[in-house]
Sequence to fold (693 residues):
Amino acid sequence: MTNVPELFGTLVFNDKVMQQRLPKETYTALIETVNSGTALDPALANTIATVMKEWAIEHGATHFTHWFQPMTGITAEKHDSFITPVGNGTVIMNFSGKELIHGEPDASSFPSGGLRSTFEARGYTAWDPSSYAFIKDGALCIPTAFISYSGQVLDKKTPLLRSMKAVSRQAVRVLHAMGNTEVSRVTATVGPEQEYFLIDKDLWRKRKDLIFTGRTLFGARPPKGQELEDHYFGNIRPRVIAYMDDLDRELWKLGILAKTRHNEVAPAQHELAPIFTTVNVATDHNQLTMEVMKKVADRHNLVCLLHEKPFAGVNGSGKHNNWSISTDMGENLLNPGKDPENNDRFLLFLTAVIKAVDTHQDLLRLSVASAGNDHRLGANEAPPAIISMFLGGELTGILESRCNGTAYKGKKGNKMQVAESIPEFLSDTTDRNRTSPFAFTGNKFEFRSLGSAFNIACSNVMLNTAVADVLSEFADCLEQSKDVEKDVRKLIKDTYNAHKRIVFNGNNYSDAWVKEAEKRGLLNLKTTPEALPYYSREENLAMFARHNVYTGEEIKAREEILLENYCKVINIEALTMIDMAGKQIIPACIAYMNSLVESIRNKDAINVPAETERDILARINPLVTAAYRANARLAEAAVKVKSIEPAAKQATAYHDVVFAAMQELRAACDELETLVPESVWPMPTYADLLFSV
Ligand code: ADP
Ligand code: MG
Fold:
C-alpha cells in the first residue's frame, strides 16, 4: 500500500520544503517575488541555491540543470554536476545563486526561425520561480525561460508568462472598475486531459514507421476496430492497470496532480487527466507527464504513443485544454453561480471570451496546427478545423434574452431520481457537446482541438492574450463610465450581438455545419500550411505587441519554425515510406509472387489446375507494379519540393504534392496487405498492434 500524501511531491522543492528550510526572510521575499512577478534580489539567490542543493543531494541528485521548452516541442536539459575542485585532489558540492537564476547554454542548435544565425550561439536561460524545481534522473531541474543573446524569445514558457501577466492586468482593471477593488491578481488556470496509446514494445521495434515518425504509415484496417465502442470506459486490462499505477506514482512524486485514468474510444487508447492548476505549472507538468508516460511504458515493455494519429481508421489522440481565470480571492470568474441570468460579472467575462474567440479564430486554429493533428481535425473524431463555441441552451438563452431585452424564461436543472434507492440529484442545465472545439463546461472552457503531442503553452498564449485584449477594451470603457452597472449590461449585450456568430450548439461533425459556418463568415483553415500564415496577420502582430507578448519579429520567427517543422515531418514520413515500401513491402510481395509462380509451374507439370494461384497472382501483380510506381513518384516528389521557397509555399507543396503521393503509395500497399498471407507480410499488422496489450 502506498501512502499517497506521504509520497506526493517528494521530488519537488515545493512550498512546504521552502518554508521548512529557507530562512524566514528569504522565504517571504521569494514568495513576494513570485506573487508580484518582480525580479529576485540576487543576494537571496545564493541562500536559496545552497538550500536547494542540500535538499537535492539528500534526495540523490548529483547534478543540476536548467530545464526549458525550446521550439522543438519537447523539453531541453543539460546536466552539470555540483562538483567543484578544492585543490587537494578532492571536490566539494557547490551550487551558486548565479547558477540558479541564470544559464548560458550554447543555443545554436535550437530552432530560432532566423532570429539568430548558427554562429550567434549564445542563449540565456532564466529561472522561473513560479514553477517549483524538482528532481529527475539524478538532476535538480530548474524550470527556466529561454531567450536569445539579444533578448528575443526562443521558447514556449516566456510568452506564456507574458500572456498570463497581460490577462491578469486587464482582468484586474475590469474588476476594479466594477468595484471589486480587493482583487490584485487574476490567474489563468488549466487542466489538460491527455490521451495516449499503449502498444507492445517488441512489436513496435518491428515497425520503422513507428520508430521514425510515431505513427503507422501503412496498415490495412483490422476486422475489428472501435465500432462496438466497447473500449471506452471499459474495464482496464491487468498490464495496462499495472502501467497506470506505476505512472500515477511517478507523477505524484513529481507533485503532478494525476487524478483520472480510463480507457478511451479506440482499442489500446487511454486517458490521463490531472487536477487543474495555474497554466504555467500545468504546462510544465504536462510536458513532464508526457516524458514520464514514455519512460514508465518502457519499464513495462510497452511503448506510449503520443502521436495525434498513430493508426488510420481509428480515433487519434487529443488533449483537452480546460481553461478558466480566477482571482487571488479564489473566485473563478467563469463560474456562473446559482443565478447566471443576474450574474453580470460572469456574463461580462463570458462575453469577453466569446469576442476573443470570434475575433481570433485564426490564432486558436493555428495554435493546434501540426502535420500530426491535420489527420484529426475535421475527420469526424475530433472537432473540425472551424473554430466555434458551445455555450449550451441555458447560457445562449440568457444572452439572447439580454439582447432582446426580454426576461429569460429557461429551464433550471431538474431534480432527478433514477430509482428509489438512489439519492436524488440536480441535473446539469446543459448537456455535453463533444463535437465542439471550444465548449463551456460549467465553469470553464474546454478547448478540444489540441493534439496529444502538443505543448499546451501556445494555445494558452493565444487564449490569454486574446481575452486580455478584449478585457482591456472593456476596462477602457468602464473606467470612464458614469454608470458602471448600466454600461456593463450594455457591453454584454453589444458584445454578444456582435460576436454571436461564433456560438454553435449543434453537431460540429455535420456537413450542414460546414455550409452554415461559411455563411456566417467563420474561418475554415483545413490544413497546417493554410493556417500558419495567419500568425503574422497585421491585427495579430498589433495585438501581441500591445500586450508585450511577442514582437513582430518573434512571431515571424515562430511562423517560420512551425512551417519548417511541418515540411520536415512530412519529409521524414515520405522517406520512411519509401524505405519501407522499397525494402520491405515490395520485396516481400515479389517473393510471394515467386512462390505462386512456382506452385503454378509445379501443378501445370502434373496437370492439376492452378486457378487459385493464377487468380491471386493476377490481383497482386498489378498492385505491386502500382506500389512500385507510386514509390518512385513519391521519391521524385520528395526531391522536387526541397528547393521551393519561401517556407509557406514549400509547406503547401509538401501537402499538395508529397503528402498526396504518400496516400497513393499507402493505398496500394494496404490493399496488398489484405491479399498476401500473414506469414509473408514483413511487419506487425494493425490487429497485432491494437490488440496486443
Ligand atoms: P469534464 O468531465 O467535464 O471534462 P472534469 O471535472 O473531469 O470535467 O474536468 C476536466 C478537467 O478540467 C480536469 O483537469 C479539471 O481539473 C479541469 N478543471 C476543472 N475546473 C477548472 C478550472 N476552473 N480551470 C481550469 N481547469 C479546470
Ligand atoms: Mg473533458
Remarks:
- The chain has a mean pLDDT of 94.
